[in-house]
Amino acid sequence: GQAARALLEEILVAPDAPGPEVADRIAVARLGEEAVALVPLPAVAADGAPTGDDAAGQGPEGLVAEELLDTVRLPLSAGLGDGDRITLGVSAVVHSAEGLRGALEEARHARRVAAARPGSVCAAGHQELASHVLLLPFVPDDVRRAFTARLLDPLRDYDRRHRAELVPTLEAFLDSDGSWTRCAARLHLHVNTLRYRVGRIEQLTGRDLSRLEDKLDFFLALRMS
């Protein structure tokens, strides 16, 4: 709300920014519990490259969420109280007033993605809205917990009792796109040891890691956990 608006104004409005008035450079409005910032970007040349000394990190797609977060994380964190958090969503650049409504909705969706991440200050950009991560924040918490527990709890329990490292093995196997040799090299294991671990994962969960559907379920469970 009001606190978020004040924080955005303080962080995003540079005292030495060009322009006769602050309002010419940035506009921050409060909409309910949200604070919305309209940030002008440098002019773009005909080849799509930003122009001017202030163009670093601001390509034709606009602000990059990760770069914005790197800039504002420390000052925003300093302005938060214990237990407070702030989440930022960044839309794509628009070139006319007609595009502002769509940009606002895009930024709101991106902020929901950021809200699903841990940390006191988180950001997400429009580039992530074409990914599966767009769907995860809209899954109800009880469904997320039940889904991840059904797939991962048997592995976690086994790891606690036997120090078998099945969950890290599963993560590495998926990150290696199911390649036995690459995954074994990554984990510094013999391929036969890796095959044994994957077989144990399949036995404990009733899933088959040669099937795309089961790989996807495990991937989503790991992302939601």
Write up this protein.
The protein is mainly α and 225 residues long. It has two domains: 2-137, no CATH class; 139-224, Orthogonal Bundle (Arc Repressor Mutant, subunit A), CATH 1.10.10. Helices cover 50% and strands 11% of the residues. The strands form three sheets. A two-stranded antiparallel sheet has the order 1-2. Helix 6 (166-175) crosses helix 8 (191-205). It starts with a helix and ends with a helix. Residues 15-20 and 44-61 have low confidence and may be disordered.
Work out the oligomeric state of the chains in this entry.
Answer: single chain
Structural class: mainly alpha
Strand order of the largest sheet: 1-2
Q: How much helical structure, as a percent, in the residues? A: 40-55%
Radius of gyration: 22 Å
Number of helices: 9
- Could you say how many structural domains there are in total? 2
Secondary-structure element pattern, one letter each:
HHEEEEHEHEHHHHH
Please state the average pLDDT score. 78
What's the topology here?
Layout: H1 2-12, H2 22-25, E1 27-31, E2 34-38, E3 58-59, E4 62-63, H3 65-78, E5 86-90, H4 100-115, E6 121-125, H5 141-162, H6 166-175, H7 180-187, H8 191-205, H9 212-224
Parallel strand pairs: 5-6
Antiparallel strand pairs: 1-2, 3-4
Helix pairs in contact: 5-9, 6-7, 6-8, 7-8
Defining traits:
9 helices; 225 residues; two-stranded antiparallel ribbon; mainly alpha
In short:
Helix content is 50%, strand content 11%. It has 225 residues and is mainly alpha-helical. The strands form three sheets. The protein has a two-stranded antiparallel sheet. A two-stranded antiparallel sheet has the order 3-4.
